[in-house]
TrEMBL record:
This is Xylan alpha-1,2-glucuronidase. Belongs to the glycosyl hydrolase 67 family. It comes from Alkalicoccobacillus gibsonii. It catalyses: Hydrolysis of (1->2)-alpha-D-(4-O-methyl)glucuronosyl links in the main chain of hardwood xylans. It comes from the Bacteria. GO terms for molecular function: hydrolase activity. The keyword Hydrolase applies. Its EC number is 3.2.1.131. Gene3D superfamilies: Alpha-glucuronidase, C-terminal domain, Chitobiase/beta-hexosaminidase domain 2-like, Glycosidases. The lineage of its organism: Bacteria, Bacillati, Bacillota, Bacilli, Bacillales. PANTHER family: ALPHA-GLUCURONIDASE A.
Amino acid sequence: MQNQNFTSCWLPDGRREKRSNKLIVTILSKAEVIRRVCHTYLSHLFEGFHIGTELNSQDEIVIGTYEATAQACTNDMQVDGFELRQEQGKTYILSHSDQGLLYGTFYFIEQLQLGMKIEDMSVIQNPATTIRMLNHWDNMDGSIERGYAGRSIFFEDNKLSYDKDRIQQYADLLSSVGINKICINNVNVHQVESRLIEADMLIELQHLADIFRGNYITMFLSINFASPIEIGGLKTADPLDSTVEEWWRRQTKLIYQKIPDFGGFIVKADSEHRPGPFTYGRTHADGANMLAKALAPFNGTVFWRCFVYDCLQDWRDRSTDRARAAYDHFKKLDGLFDENVILQIKNGPMDFQVREPVSPLIGALEKTNYVMEFQVTQEYTGQQIDLCYLVPQWKEILDFDTHLKGKGTTVSEILSGNLHKSLQTGITAVVNVGRDDNWTGHEFAQANLYGYGKLTWDPTFKTEKLLKDWVQITYPFVKDSATRLIEEILNRSWMIYEKYTCPLGVGWMVKTGHHYGPDVNGYEYSPWGTYHFSDRNGLGVDRTKSGSNYIEQYSANVSELYANLNSCPDNLLLFFHHVPYTHPLHSGKTVIQHIYDSHFEGVEDVEHIIYEWTREKANLPDDLYSHINQKLNSQLTNATEWRDKINTYFYRMSGIPDEHQRLIYG
Ligand code: BDP
């Protein structure tokens, strides 16, 4: 049995002061979820509230579609958008659909938590995209690949095993920020998870899908491309083999008999030892389309991942570059995918590093649907031990100007579907939750989940606003000065993490396998294609024309920006260039002095945060104080290890002393 003692994070719970007045809400919708959500969360905010089902003179809040409330419809309302409207002394929560009403109701609740007066609430909101998704990397044995918040909320002992209340609360958390699709199992699908699409498992999955359906969240499964062999008893998984096609058609039909609104499949193929169409000399379009055809009669979708690279390549001969892989594999297939295939492209060309440039495939596909994939779980960004608020990173990516159709072709414009109007686009991410009471291990990592959801709804939301709102609604009982401190340390945390880890965008100096802590050469002599090429003269990866020419995958403007040492931003210098240690940065420092300084600064920043946190002790609840204090001290140990290893390594490699003589070996 799972722990019942979970905390609700940003949704209202018993920790809040109630408003002394009563609230009368009239719900003109048959959707059970609206009633339940009002009941569950408004009861924490008001001394008393009453729910009615008919309009009358006393009601203050009316929730219903334009049709049910006989309110005039606002132009340009999307089906899951919503409106809050003041009319004759009442506040209306309006939409075309119950789904939109659910989002509107959560918005209303959030505004109350933020202290807004009801009579001032007036807004129209449409989501930027219809694909607002989360991917779980949960395994059926209960472990989570790259999970840092305890065991899976869905599985244990190779079975489905979940607490219904907890899943319901999770669904509410997701709906409160607009998430509408979820994949519940790891993209690395092994034999046991392949069985999820078999009849007995589907009976169990039905109940889980019911809970998510109640919140208008569609459920997906990751599938194993070799399932016809692994569980179907066939000799091949060749996508063009008719027995294979038939097997997938039958299996898919079975799924829809049990889960009529099933979303579809996520597929990781031909990557990191996963099977795929390459085994049979077929293309990824062949593979994806075969599955798409099985799903099409039921309106299902295939999310086909572009994280495809040969992890056994060795780039010593410079003939390949892992950064090139996604674009090289998929750009040439543009236009060959069926309508219900959506390509899933990681935000950067490598793999969720602390800093990477934006993937050049975003915006480059003109005839193929796609989503961008972020990583909310902090695999390479501190593993929910170190603090790393990722919204500023995502915002930087979303605001990036690709120049693909001239100035202003930002990633958020592209993902909102404004570049190629006929395409389906959107955002997905690997989630950071587990069975820990606080959902995310590090309680402040909840802010990443909240911020991610909000950005999928509207990528133009400002980082500061998202942070302020999250802190205010999550910690209404925390005093002002401590609230400001939480905001401040979260806001700076990505920069601080970057300072004490891999310098200037080079990435990958992590311990191999688990990816926490420093190991400068851990991946340097492995075949995984993730090198920094440090020697006694310099470091960095030449991805310009004289190197792998990865830069050619961008628009001319962007390519030039990165190719030219005068314009390439310092924070990506080593991603694009191999330079001497004495190379001067735009900041005026040399590369080597920057490495030393930033690593010392990163550790000092963590020490300073600990000092500030300790000073606020009296203004913080004991459990929150000690939880964060303990995490910060672990972070300090990690940051110190990074500083010492990186600085020592580069001092010994370069032989150039630190100007400030701080090095142990200096
Ligand atoms: C890498 C992870 C690995 C995942 C892979 C993926 O280290 O666990 O399976 O990405 O996205 O970041 O498939």
